[in-house]
Amino acid sequence: MSAQPEVHEFQAETRQLLDLMVHSIYSNKDSFLRELISNASDALDKLRLESLLDKDLDVDTSDLHITLIPDAEKRTLVVADNGIGMTRDEVVGLIGTLARSGTAELRRSLAEAREKGVSDAAAEELIGQFGIGFYSTFMVAEKVTLVTRKAGETTGTRWESTGDGTYTIDDVPDAPQGTSVTLALKPVDTEDHLYDYADKTKLRQLVKRYSDFIAWPIRMDVEKTVPVEKPESESDEDTDKAPETKTVVEAETINSMKALWAKSRSEVSEEEYHEFYRHVSHAWDAPLETITLQAEGTFEYQALLFIPTQPPFDLFMRDSKVGIHLYVKRVFIMDDCAELMPEYLRFVKGVVDAADLSLNVSREILQQDRQIRAIRRRLTKKVISTVTEMRDSRPDDYRTFWDGFGRVFKEGLVNDPDNRDALLKASSFASTHSEEELTTLADYIGRMKSGQDTIYYMTGESRQQIVNSPHMEAFRAKGIEVLVLSDPVDEMWVSAGAEFDGKTFQSIAKGAVDLDADDEDSDDTSKDDQEKAYADLLSWLTTTLSDDVSETRLSSRLTESPACLVGDTFSMSPQLEKLYRASGQQFPKSKRALELNPDHPLVEALNKAYANGDHDKLVPTAKLVYGMAVIAEGGELEDPAEFAKLLAGSLTESFAAGSDS
Ligand code: ADP
């Protein structure tokens, strides 16, 4: 047995985080209790499930519960459970380190928080985003001691820290099964929102407020004054005396344990829903939307779902999980049940309680289960329609939702063709109609010009790059609205053949766009004349630039720039190519068409020079025109040095020509 506890250092990130916890003026210090109770409740859920699955596990599950033991004199509070417990390795891994991926992300946020100062807002934002569970105890405790023994093991572990740079870890031979966390409380300082957490009235109040719905009994000893019972014979004589009383201590359950998802909406307060959301999602923000669903009939189930306000930091990480917990008749079965929600709705948190599943259902069985599939379909539709309703009735909340989760939501446009219509209806897009406001597709269609039969869009890396691209010129000149799609996922769904209300989507940077066709006073004869006048130059350019372009043609999309590059209708955009390359896929560079603006002075001059002969002298200019088209759309030149050299040569020549005259 190790006589001396081992001393470990916290990782740098953990230390910084603790520092923030210890010193921040984060006002909601009460929430430490919710976190401890939430962890204890999870541990009880896990033990019950484990004992169902593993009949040989030697544990007593007859009285699973949580105990609060305040000691006003010693100024300590113990929160204990007889749940699954932790092994020594788990204590080091889960409690001693931040047991999450994304430490780089956290480091960045911490640095930002420090820059802003350790303010309430900074702490709150960080906590909201990362959900600092166990560590929140250091807001209220000078020292935290955790003693735990894993179900089925004989030796327990003690972990202790004062929240500075180190913690100690130690074997405990006689630890009871489960986990107890003892807080040596900081002095009461109500100005700093530090209340008396050794006070029973306060604790009872906090449990009611934050943890009332917890499905396990939360017990606390209460002193009760009861009359002293006397033998029959004495009772007659003392009738005029006050009855004698004594104080007894009784363990009382202080939460009501009601399963909120089984209640109708009118029976549950908003605050209760919010606290439940925080419990299931391990988050600290408030939900933006609460969704309840109670299905009767062939498949009986209840669902209570939440759309968070703040996107979690790991929303786009590979191991980001689906946030639905599965229960069967109030018994917890598993968390992160991927079978119940499509991946693109992974930000939705909550519980589903299905009445007709077996308690020892496995993930493999779930994947095959008809009922689970039916529930998933229904929940998916419900979430999508809720988003649509939110957009129509609470535009500000919808905007918060869209800014946080829109990019994930749009993954569904690619991955869930069955719901594509509903998803398009619920989605919003940036457009040239307004710089700030987003538009729905229905509103876009409402503003379409007469004769316009497709929804125009352009993809790119940023709004600025897209709206300044030469492809936009004629659309701007003619006042035709274009969707501005700058999320990587946009590339995917627009090329997945989406349609809305019978209208197809067309990229303004792809295919032949004939805006003049929509234009009544366009002049076909002058167009034909131009085609003739430029024919020779165009075919020469196609040959000269054949390494880079598929053809050269006259454009009807340009009004200001001399040239732009246009892909085939079904080609990949340069951004998509870049995405694929970045993910390690190889394929040949795709050539696009070079379109020239026949009314641009440079193009006119080039045509004249071409007619005058000495075509070799025009090669540098041809390359410059191509290079300019690449740069103008925000693209990257393959050989910027060569472009610069050509440009310097051309400028020198024009100065020389200027001084000659
Ligand atoms: P979170 O609860 O958000 O995951 P915490 O820091 O609160 O983060 O806890 C980290 C992990 O430590 C938990 O996910 C759980 O695995 C483990 N843990 C915490 N408290 C207990 C407990 N009372 N019993 C068993 N395991 C626990």
TrEMBL record:
Its main location: cytoplasm. The keyword Signal does not apply. Residues 579-661 are annotated as: C. SUPFAM superfamilies: ATPase domain of HSP90 chaperone/DNA topoisomerase II/histidine kinase, HSP90 C-terminal domain, Ribosomal protein S5 domain 2-like. GO terms for molecular function: ATP binding; ATP hydrolysis activity; ATP-dependent protein folding chaperone; unfolded protein binding. Residues 1-363 are annotated as: A. InterPro entries: HATPase_C_sf (IPR036890), HSP90_C (IPR037196), Hsp90_fam (IPR001404), Hsp90_N (IPR020575), Ribosomal_Su5_D2-typ_SF (IPR020568). It is found in: Cytoplasm. ATP binds at E35, N39, D81, M86, S101, G102, Q129, F130, G131, I132, G133, F134, T179, R363. GO terms for cellular component: cytoplasm. Transmembrane segments: none annotated. Keywords: ATP-binding, Chaperone, Cytoplasm, Nucleotide-binding, Stress response. Molecular chaperone. Has ATPase activity. Homodimer. Belongs to the heat shock protein 90 family. This is Chaperone protein HtpG. It comes from Gordonia namibiensis NBRC 108229. The lineage of its organism: Bacteria, Bacillati, Actinomycetota, Actinomycetes, Mycobacteriales.
